[in-house]
Design brief:
alpha/beta; Rossmann fold; Dihydrodipicolinate Reductase, domain 2; 7-stranded parallel beta sheet; 7-stranded mixed beta sheet; globular
Amino acid sequence: MKKIVVLGAGLVGNAIAIDLSVHFQVTSVDINIEALEKLKNKHGISILKADLSDTENLKKIVANFDLVIGAVPGFMGFNTVKAVIEAGKNIVDISFFAENPFELDQLAKKHNVTAIVDAGVAPGLGNIILGFHNKRMKVNNFRCLVGGLPLVREWPFEYKAVFSPIDVIEEYVRPARYVQAGQLVVREALSDAELIHFDKVGTLEAWNSDGLRSLAVTMNIPNMIEKTLRFPGTIEYLKVLRDTGFFSYQEIEINGTKIRPIDLTAKLLFPKWKLKEGEGDFTVMQIDISGEKNGENVHYVYNLYDVYDFENQTISMARTTGYTCTAVANLVINEQFTQKGICPPEFVGEEEVNFNFILDYLKQRNVNLNLLCNV
């Protein structure tokens, strides 16, 4: 049986480990022994407590595995992927790190490594869908709207974080890139707000976020944009927090002690943003692609609405992000995708067999995409 190591035992990393353990020998690694014990006791998954920021030790940990899954917080992601590449191991990563992954492309090719980055839901699944269609038509417009939200709106935040709070806050401060009329445009996060109605959900607030990621480099498409979705009113309080300095990485001194405001904010918000036992979440995503095919105008809209799995107690964001990752992992470990170097998800989606495998894999886990053509 092939062996996979999952780096990170958070809510998404756990879902990934559990899903892969059905057909592979899985080991989960984290510094949090409590999270690891749950995997071991409930699912029989092998565990290893380790500090994953120690990259030299990390290289030793991954040495005996056939595939590595990166599910660490974003601030650790780049160095983790780099260390795994230097160890000569293939990796599928969902850490959403801020650095440019293509800086590692030559290193990955030198070590004959397949390194798939941003293999989640968005970025991730949206890239896979665009990669498939871009190979078969002239795409003129691409828009991705996506959000993960609690089923119950609770004052004051009406939001729950299902992954690292600092990674969530990063979406509110990292400049947003989009492509308009063939030109790369950079705007501040939370800009160009609009209200959009979704079936089953109602009206949500959309704003510019930096979700295009690799698409801004790999795709020659004149108009591309990604927006984050939240309940209406969210932007106002986020801007107050951001502009006051609560999201700043620059150290300030308080009574002789230096701290980064972002660390304090994350510490304060995490208990407020944490899903309580039995609470559910949902994921909503809409992928809109239009252009020309065989001389005719074509328009595709993919809608995803996914809800917390109460039976298996798996959050929706873990399902949509995690199962996209595990679908891609299956393609890599079974040598159905063998391209070397840094490979964003759009490269994986180009081949029809891969595209269909991923959508079928998600469907088997009740993560369903509804496709509307020429709407």
